[in-house]
């Protein structure tokens, strides 16, 4: 099930919402209860490793292939 990630513009809290809600439905920040939230990216599946920005498989370098890469 797709998950939508939101960022609260009021308190900068990131949170995820399952896609059960309809488009246009108001999303409220679970932390501060404000509705000034911004949709970020859709993530498929729970536990996606979305925090890494590079496509590298190596944890100590940013290149796609190096001597440390497995
Ligand atoms: Zn908030």
Descriptive account of the structure:
- The protein is an all-beta fold.
- It has a domain of 30 residues.
- Helix content is 0%, strand content 29%.
- The chain has no helices and three strands.
- A three-stranded antiparallel sheet has the order 2-1-3, with no helix packed on it.
- A hairpin with a 5-residue loop joins strand 1 and strand 2.
- It is elongated and about 50 Å long.
- The two termini are 31 Å apart.
- 4% of the residues are buried.
- The model has no long low-confidence stretch (mean pLDDT 76).
- Bound molecules: zinc ion.
- Zinc ion binds next to loops.
Give the SSE layout:
Blueprint: E1 2-8, E2 14-18, E3 37-44
Antiparallel strand pairs: 1-2, 1-3
Decide which structural class fits the backbone. Answer: mainly beta
Number of strands: 3
Secondary-structure element series: EEE
Counting DSSP H or I runs of 4 or more residues, the number of helices is 0
What share of the residues lie within helices?
A: under 10%
Q: Identify the bound ligands.
A: zinc ion
Kindly report the average pLDDT value.
Answer: 76
> What low-confidence regions span 5 or more consecutive residues with pLDDT below 50?
none
Fraction in beta strands: 25-35%
Biggest sheet strand order reads 2-1-3
Radius of gyration from CA coordinates? 16 Å
Biggest pleated sheet: 3 strands, antiparallel
User: How would you sum up the global shape?
Assistant: elongated
- Taking the alpha carbons of the first and last residues, their distance comes to 31 Å
């Amino acid at each position: 099930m797709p998950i939508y990630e939101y960022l609260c513009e009021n308190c900068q809290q990131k949170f995820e919402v399952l896609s059960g809600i309809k488009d246009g439905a108001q999303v409220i920040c679970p932390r501060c209860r404000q509705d000034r939230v911004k949709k970020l990216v859709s993530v498929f599946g729970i536990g996606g490793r979305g925090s890494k920005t590079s496509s590298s498989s190596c944890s100590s370098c940013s290149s796609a292939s190096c001597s440390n890469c497995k």
